[in-house]
Design brief:
This protein has 112 residues and is mainly alpha-helical. The chain has helices at residues 10-15, 19-36, 40-53, 58-70, 75-89, 91-107. The radius of gyration is 15 Å and the shape is globular. InterPro entries: AhpD-like, CMD-like.
């Protein structure tokens, strides 16, 4: 395997939401939210739509869906976002996202 100059375990830390990495991402998110001018619900739904568009990992969905629920966004609204963006991102991307969301929620012990 080629040496890419990244210290061992760095990718695992990113994938596993290492505390330092998570704190940095959280701070970036807070800064972006403040600059967006959006209300918390709209901001989080926009992030979820972006995650679908880029075929994000289950951990990213879990983080953002949990934050959305804490902001008062019902899962039915998240489902509505998936329906709304399907014509733009494609049905295959939405089906992939739905599976990853289900996987993330199941890994977290939830069945929503």
């Amino acid at each position: 395997m080629p040496d890419d100059g990244v210290p061992g375990g760095a990718f695992e830390a990113l994938a596993g939401a290492d505390a330092r990495v998570f704190e940095e991402v959280l701070q970036m998110t807070l800064d972006t939210f403040e600059r967006s001018g959006l209300d918390p619900q709209t901001y989080l739904l926009t992030r979820i739509a972006a995650l679908v568009a880029m075929d994000a990992a289950p951990a990213s969905y879990l983080l953002n869906i949990t934050a959305a629920e804490e902001a008062g966004v019902p899962m039915e609204t998240v489902r509505g976002v998936l329906v709304a963006i399907a014509p733009v991102v494609g049905s295959a991307r939405v089906v992939s996202a739905a599976g990853k969301i289900a996987e993330a929620l199941a890994a977290d012990g939830r069945t929503d």
